[in-house]
Design brief:
This protein is mainly alpha-helical. Helices cover 79% and strands 4% of the residues. It is built from five helices and two strands; from the N terminus they run αααββαα. It has a two-stranded antiparallel ribbon with strand order 1-2. It is flat and about 55 Å long. It starts with a helix and ends with a helix. The mean pLDDT is 93. InterPro entries: Brnchd-chn_aa_trnsp_AzlD (IPR008407). Pfam families: AzlD. This is AzlD domain-containing protein. Keywords: Membrane, Transmembrane, Transmembrane helix.
């Protein structure tokens, strides 16, 4: 029963957040500062999530095969590789390091 209460509260919370977004005046959203922040916040959140997933294991700082895969993806991005090549490089390097015992 607790799970269904949590699901209902989460659904209601999501609905309220969407409703609040609709109530924001259009003039407030067209300000230059708001536009810049709206463009940068998703990038910052994605970077934070990537770092947390790549360097954290059970609440401790960990450098393992995931870090090597992330480095391979970063190198592929610097070389302007297509997205699928970036993901493939990360997967192959991570799998290779794990197969070698890292």
């Amino acid at each position: 029963m607790n799970v269904w209460i949590a699901i209902a509260l989460t659904a209601a919370g999501c609905y309220l957040v969407k409703l609040l977004g609709l109530l924001v005046p259009a003039g407030a959203l067209e300000r230059p500062l708001v536009r810049r922040l709206a463009a940068l916040v998703p990038v910052a959140l994605l970077a934070a999530l990537t770092a947390q997933q790549a360097f954290s294991s059970q609440g401790a700082l960990t450098v393992d095969a995931r870090a090597a895969g992330l480095a391979a993806a970063a190198l592929a991005l610097l070389l302007r590789a297509p997205f699928l090549v970036v993901v493939g490089a990360a997967v192959l390097v991570t799998a290779g390091v794990r197969a070698l015992g890292g």
